[in-house]
């Protein structure tokens, strides 16, 4: 009986660890927030809406890399094959 309980406890612990690892695949990166489900976050060639759109990020997308370079509320990011500028009010840190 003790070995069955131990085995069950071990299996539950392993499943929890695997789930936590999968849920945190993008931990340590940024996620898109405050963008409607039907919209996208535009990535621009420079730090303002006056610059050309060079790509976009879907709402809720994670694994966005933010570069150290920022100007005001705009920061350089990389997502998929795109690199450019977004307003930081649309990003949230995933610890």
Could you explain the architecture of this structure?
This protein has 95 residues and is α+β, with helices and mostly antiparallel strands. It has one domain: SH3 type barrels, CATH 2.30.30.40. Helices cover 23% and strands 38% of the residues. The chain has one helix at residues 2-23, and strands at 29-32, 41-44, 53-57, 65-71, 74-79, 82-87, 91-94. It has a three-stranded antiparallel sheet with strand order 4-5-6, with no helix packed on it. Strand 5 and strand 6 form a beta hairpin. The N and C termini lie far apart (40 Å).
CATH class label: Mainly Beta
Taking the sheet with the most strands, its summary is: 3 strands, antiparallel
Shape: globular
Write the CATH architecture name: Roll
Q: Can you count the beta strands?
A: 7
What is the helix tally?
Answer: 1
* End-to-end C-alpha gap: 40 Å
What would the average pLDDT be, to the nearest integer?
83
The helical percent reads 10-25%
Q: How many discrete domains?
A: 1
Strand order in space, largest sheet: 4-5-6
Beta fraction: 35-45%
Q: Uncertain regions: pLDDT < 50 for 5+ in a row?
A: 5-22
């Amino acid at each position: 009986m003790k070995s069955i309980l131990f085995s069950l406890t071990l299996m539950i612990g392993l499943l929890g660890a695997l789930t936590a690892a999968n849920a945190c695949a993008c931990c340590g990166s940024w996620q898109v927030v405050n963008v409607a489900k039907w919209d996208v976050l535009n990535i621009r060639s420079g730090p303002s809406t006056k610059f050309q759109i060079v790509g976009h990020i879907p709402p809720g997308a994670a694994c966005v890399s933010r570069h150290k370079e920022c100007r005001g509320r705009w920061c350089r990011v990389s997502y998929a094959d795109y690199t450019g500028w977004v307003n930081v009010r649309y990003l949230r840190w995933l610890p």
